[in-house]
Amino acid sequence: MNETMPVNLDARPEVAAFVAEVRARLADLPPEERQELTDGLEADLCDLVAEAGPEALGDPDAYTRELRAAAGLDPVTVRVAGHGRPLGERVARQLDASHARWDRAVGGLPGRPWEFVQTLRPLWWVARAWVAVELLDLWFGGAPYAYVPRVGSLGLVLTVLAVVASVQVGRGRLWPGTRVRSSVGARVVLLGLNLFVLVLGPLVLNELDARTSYATSYSEPVHQTLPATGVQRPDGSFVENIYPYDAEGQPLTGVQLYDERGEPVLVTRDPDLLDTSERFVVRYPWRNGGSSVWNAFPMPERTQDGPSRSADAFDDVNPPTLKLPLAAVTPVRLPGIEASTLVQDPKPTPKESTQERGSGAGTR
Amino acid sequence: MDTTQLLKGVLDVAVLAVVDDEDGYGYDILRRLRARGLDDVGDASVYGTLRRLYGGGALTSYVVPSDSGPHRKYYGITPTGRAQLKRQRDDWDHFATTVGNLLNGAA
Q: What is the reported pLDDT for A2?
């Protein structure tokens, strides 16, 4: 008759929580009497749960009343006021209760899907490590971004380290995994970290998706992947900047170009990705008040980390500058046509001249 | 009729009788009580009764360690318990006969 049922007691946190509840309601008793009452209770309740399910535990208040009455004690249970107990204990009870509720909710499902999910736990350990390193990469690493985190050249090493750490935490070999059963703090930390990854995981994926497609579009030859915009060379490549020179062969700055229809002459606005250094050459347009004027040349340019134009680029230590391909070119003449010249003003600011005839594709 | 009220009066003797058959731990004793027809008995009532009988010297207890978790607490009957069982069994028989006669006579 005394057969002991094989019960995995570790798998019954709800029993431990319930016994803790009962103990709390016996707090008025001397320790040895309380011990006497609850000794063996855990084993008995585990059997009960194994046989009748966690619902059989019922309400700890009613249970303790019954226990006290049967044991011949004063039936008035100790008032278990939520705010009267230490915060840690309250948090632990809340967590235990939620855990038990969850177990009950998924325990009855057909096919035991939760058991299936639980066997995938190691997958989660790897996934959260990956998310952590990828986050680091997105925050501190430079372009290009990839599904294998780069973080400079440390990406692979960091990923391996993070996976090892995460798995050790999952196996209970590394803090906070080691203290989950004994310390509420460790439990909360672990829960917080997991939730953090759970929330950020999709965001990281989203961001990566955006950034990798971005990087690919720039690392490939731009002229082939984007719709044709701007002035093209006979070989099909796009003109990226225009450097006008006056009739004397001297470089001009801030020249606005229009075609024969009065439409602005535009060049491609896409930055160049430098293959070797993973940096971009970005050209900054001239401005008219708040708006960009894309047909004013030459456009100053600078080499920078990202492909986007920053508003305070000209205040930067590395501002965009003019990079003349040729210091000067040969002078030109035409009978009957007078070339523009710089008006020698008494004021020191030189006035630029416009050269509408210089527009068109044949700048290089 | 609320049998739980009746149960309270006889739980001591019922528990003593079950433990007198064979030692057992809390849940085991509860099952044996239920198997014998006391379906309504609550587990907390049984555990409380066991602790009280133990406190009164009617039961002895010993702990059996378990590999899989918390140890089980077994209860056995003491000579005091046996004497109490005999006394209460007699009381019950007398009481049951009296009430039985009374009820049947009234019917």
A: 42
pLDDT band with cut points at 50, 70 and 90 for residue A230: confident
Residue owning tokens 């600078």: A302
Residue closest to A306 by CA, chosen among A274, A344, A331, A329: A274
The Cα–Cα gap between A314 and A287 comes to 12
A290 to chain B, any CB pair closer than 8 A? The answer is no
Give the position of tokens 């528990």: B15
Q: Which residues contact A357 (CB under 8 A, 6 or more apart)?
A: none
- Return the H-helix or E-strand segment holding B62: strand B59-66
Quote the tokens at residue A187: 């439990």
CB-CB under 8 Å, B23 with A71: no
**Which residue from B27, B45, B63 is facing A44, i.e. has the nearest CB?**
B27
Give the nearest chain A residue to B18 (CA atoms). A1
Q: Indicate left, alpha or beta for A97 from its phi (over 0: left) and psi (-120 to 50: alpha).
A: alpha
The secondary element (H helix, E strand) that includes residue A161 is: helix A155-170
The span from the CA of A135 to the CA of A208, in Å, is 10
Residue with tokens 């070797």: A276
Q: Is the pLDDT of residue A178 over 80?
A: no
Query: By the 8 A CB rule, do A162 and A151 touch?
Result: no
Chain A residue closest to B9 (CA)? Answer: A70
Tell me how far apart the alpha carbons of residues A152 and A146 are, in angstroms, rounded to a whole number. 12
Residue tagged 């009729």 (tokens) = B1
The pair phi, psi for residue A7, each rounded to 5°, is -125, 130
Chain A residue with CA closest to B47: the answer is A67
Q: Is B46 on the interface with A (CB under 8 A)?
A: yes
| pLDDT single digits (tens) A75-119 | 665 555 544 566 777 788 788 888 888 887 887 788 888 888 888
pLDDT over 50 (residue A219) = no
pLDDT at A142 (0 to 100): 66
pTM: 0.39
Residues 6+ apart with CB under 8 A from A165: A129, A174
CA distances from A161 to A40, A130, A285, A354 (A): 44, 10, 45, 61
Interchain pair A2, B30: CB under 8 A: no
Dihedral (CA of A210, A212, A218, A221) sign? negative
